[in-house]
Design brief:
The strands form three sheets. This protein has a six-stranded mixed β-sheet. Strands 7-8-9-10-11-12 form a six-stranded mixed β-sheet, with helices on one face. Strands 1-14 form a two-stranded antiparallel ribbon. By secondary structure, it is of the alpha/beta class. The protein is globular and about 75 Å long. It is built from 17 helices and 14 strands. Helix 4 runs antiparallel to helix 5. Helix content is about 45%, strand content about 15%. It folds into two domains: about 220 residues, no CATH class; about 250 residues, Nitrilase/N-carbamoyl-D-aminoacid amidohydrolase, CATH 3.60.110.
């Protein structure tokens, strides 16, 4: 039986929480998140409900304190918020997120007392997955650092097309629980068999091609202008920015689709629709290419601002961002917090959310599911455009994160979206990391950070639907809830 020194149990789980972050990009030491969860699960087995709150909170403080440390960079360095205020906001976010494992520990110890094999294997992993889903949904959601994402390069990623990221996360949490059972010498043979079956099942599931090619391959290019965040919205830099993107684009030959990043055009559409946009259209018509670019849009009829992607080629079409960032793109509590948003180019204004049922963009002759920055972390929202869309495109401005963990984590989550959907994904960012990702979630070409770059490659549009596209998160949530309740019921009847 594992018996960590109880006096230092809190220190162990705090360190384990911080250690779990190394399983994610850029390090990608994927076994460490399984080890970290095993340490937490074992500690919970030894805890009372009140102790489980404390140890869950410590794990969360280590996990989110390290994993989302980039929040401070965004708020202070690029949002120009004073050090004290930025520190308080970042700390408050970490504390709120740490409440999820804290309350989960208490809940699990209440519904499933004891330390039987069933509690370890059936209850703890299912509870972890349900808590992650709740974190990704409650208060508009923040599904950042969900443990399934850390397994994108392991056999467990084979479950992504079946059950999505949360299904992969459940498999990782179950692996941790089985490790605990093996070390505690509980049902060692069934535990070993189940652990091997789990990883072999993911391996063979990954061999299945759920989607197929649609049409001919496309020659694509992602333009990374590398405009410094502090210079991006300065009016005197507008012409220089437009010239840079234009020069990089029209130096290309034989491209079907070119993608510029989020707000690559740092001016509202109505300010450039009669001059710069016609120039782009003329150049694109001559080359036969389609351009997708980020651009802010002002709807003067309702005086609404949108963070948008525009297609330029045969016709002008727009996608307006639907899932906005609270306190970054809009103020949920404007009456209490005032009317100032440092992150916006236009003072005293919020972005508005686009409609849920927007028509797909058409680019290079194929329907495209566009998303902007933060939206790519929501798997259930990305698949709403499927199976109609043949290609995924995400534009972002990771310049807000500086040289932190966030751009690497953001790219890793984008890879998971491609794998869930069975679609190639083009990710264009202002300062990096821009990448071409195939339908299996593999990066086929990418840029470095903080460099002017053009990422070129070939993608094959896809058709068809993975099981996750068809059913979303519902199957994994039902299975996890059933496992949690059934395991808890049996544990209480047979302590």
């Amino acid at each position: 039986m594992i018996n960590p020194v109880q006096r230092f149990g809190g220190l162990f789980v705090l360190i384990a929480g911080g250690m779990a972050v190394t399983a994610f990009a850029p390090l990608g030491w994927f076994p460490l998140v399984i080890l970290a969860l095993a340490i937490l699960f074992n500690q919970w087995l030894l805890d009372t409900p009140r102790q489980a709150i404390w140890h869950g909170a410590l794990f969360g403080l280590g996990f989110f304190g390290v994993g989302i440390s980039w929040v401070y960079v965004s708020i202070h360095t690029y949002g120009h918020v004073p050090v004290v205020t930025a520190s308080l906001v970042a700390t408050a976010l970490v504390v709120v997120l740490a409440l999820f494992p804290a309350l989960l520990g208490y809940f699990l110890k209440r519904i499933a007392p004891g330390s039987s094999w069933l509690v370890v294997v059936a209850v703890f992993p299912a509870g972890w997955v349900l808590a992650e889903w709740l974190r990704g949904w409650l208060f508009t959601g923040l599904p950042w650092l969900t443990i399934g994402t850390s397994q994108i390069d392991t056999p467990l990623a084979g479950f992504a097309a079946l059950l999505g990221n949360y299904g992969v996360g459940w498999a990782a949490a179950l692996s941790a629980a089985l490790v605990v059972a093996l070390l505690r010498k509980q049902a060692r043979i069934p535990s070993l068999v189940l652990l091997c079956a789990l990883w072999l099942g993911g391996y063979f599931a990954d061999r299945v091609e759920w989607t197929g090619p649609r049409g001919e391959a496309l020659q694509v290019a992602l333009v990374q202008g590398n405009i410094a965040q502090e210079n991006k919205w300065a009016p005197e830099n507008l012409l220089h920015t437009l010239e840079r993107y234009s020069a990089l684009t029209f130096a290309l030959q034989d491209k079907d689709l070119v993608v510029w990043p989020e707000t690559a055009i740092p001016a509202f559409y109505h300010q450039v629709e009669d001059n710069f946009i016609p120039y782009l259209e003329a150049e694109l018509q001559a080359s036969g290419a389609t351009l997708l670019t980020g651009i802010p849009v002002l709807d003067k009829t309702e005086w609404r601002y949108y963070n948008s992607v525009m297609s330029i080629g045969d016709a002008r079409r727009f996608y307006h961002k639907r899932h906005l960032v609270p306190f970054g793109e809009y103020l949920p509590l404007r009456g209490l917090l005032g009317d100032r948003l440092d992150a916006l180019a236009v003072p005293n204004a919020d972005f508005s959310a686009g409609d849920d049922n927007q028509a797909l963009l058409q680019a290079a002759g194929v329907p495209v599911a566009a998303s902007i920055c933060f939206e790519i972390v929501f798997g259930a929202e990305i698949i709403q455009a499927l199976p109609e869309a043949a290609l995924l495109v995400n534009v972002s401005n990771d310049g807000w994160f500086g040289d932190s963990l966030a751009p690497h984590q953001h790219l890793e989550m984008s890879r998971m979206r491609a794998k869930e959907a069975g679609r190639p994904l083009l990710r264009a960012t202002n300062t990096g990391i821009s990448a071409i990702i195939d339908h299996s979630g593999r990066i086929t070409a990418r840029s470095r950070q903080f460099e002017e770059a053009v990422v070129s490659g070939t993608v094959i549009p896809r058709q068809g639907a993975t099981p996750y596209v068809r059913f979303g998160n519902l199957p994994v949530l039902l299975l996890a809830l059933t496992s949690l309740l059934a395991g808890g019921f049996v544990a209480r009847r047979n302590p």
